[in-house]
Write a structure and sequence with these properties.
single chain, alpha+beta, six-stranded antiparallel beta sheet, four-stranded antiparallel beta sheet, 11 helices, 47% helix
Length: 286
């Protein structure tokens, strides 16, 4: 994967106080961040058959990815994934609609859940959001019309929540939490990558448990992930290297002892040899 290549279409629109996001990904990507701190956020796959992974849980066309205000966002999307999302001000949900389901979810300021509702309720919400996106292109919507649209979104959201399978609402599984802690530890040590033994000791877990957790969440083994992080560290170092720096010095500093194997792995990941990256950097800075 070339880190300088990114291909996606992102659209942001507002209808009154409702924020709409439409995301279409044509490259695989890891999405991280925090949901809006003053809103209840909903994310839905935009079509049947479309899905993605959110905090280790699969979100399909019949499910709603629900983020309380300020919740952590972590998603893995594959090429071809298309999503539609909206953010509703928390105070709007409390004041404008007398819905226990909506108020209870809006009140969670740091909660994230994947909720399974009825296909009809999810489709109705999805269709309404798509309609709002089309209306957002009109600049002349009156305040009265915007308030009416907010009421409609709150109503359909409430219906979807109230139709949800209350026994199915999921929180991140234990394997996901373990894999995320391992990943964060690796990233904190990217300049001095830890060994698998060090990671297991830090997390108080076995190598076997870590292996399965990491493979389930990220689709690769922790050893493979560590190697990719070390290769990324090499790439960043080559992009900032002085004119006297050699590729072998950077590679050895990051634990790549076999130079021919390192060059092959680097080319597989970035599409060019490390010497090419270094040479291109020097030409750009001359």
């Amino acid at each position: 994967m070339n880190p300088e290549k990114f291909d996606a279409r992102l659209t942001l629109a507002y209808v009154g106080s409702i924020r709409l996001d439409v995301e279409t990904w044509t490259t695989a990507v890891e999405v991280t961040g925090t949901s809006p701190r003053d809103a209840l956020s909903l994310v839905l796959p935009s079509s049947e058959g479309c899905s993605y992974m959110s905090s280790g849980m699969e979100v399909t066309a019949s499910r709603i990815d629900v983020f309380g205000a300020g919740s952590e966002v972590y998603a893995l999307v594959e090429p071809g994934t298309a999503l539609i999302a909206c953010s509703i001000p928390v105070e709007a949900g409390d004041v404008l609609l007398d819905s226990p389901a909506l108020r209870s979810l809006a009140a969670y300021e740091d909660r994230h859940r994947v909720v399974r509702s009825t296909p009809h309720a999810v489709d109705a919400l999805r269709n309404l959001l798509e309609q709002l996106l089309r209306l957002s292109r009109h600049d002349m919507l009156s305040e009265k019309a915007q308030a009416r649209l907010l009421d409609e979104v709150l109503l359909e959201t409430s219906k979807a929540f109230e139709s949800a399978d209350q026994d199915w609402s999921k929180r991140p599984p234990r394997r996901y939490r373990l894999a995320r802690r391992a990943r964060d530890f690796m990233l904190e040590r990217h300049g001095n990558p830890p060994t698998i033994t060090e990671i297991c000791h830090f997390l108080n877990t076995s190598e076997r448990t870590l292996h399965y957790a990491f493979r389930d969440v990220y689709g690769v083994t922790p050893k493979r992930f560590l190697k990719s992080q070390r290769l990324c560290a090499v790439y960043k170092s080559l992009k900032t290297a002085s004119s006297q720096t050699r590729v072998s010095e950077i590679a050895l500093a990051l634990g790549f002892w076999d130079q021919s194997l390192f060059a092959r792995d680097y080319r597989d990941m970035f599409g060019e040899l490390p010497s090419t990256t270094l040479r291109r950097h020097r030409l750009d800075t001359d």
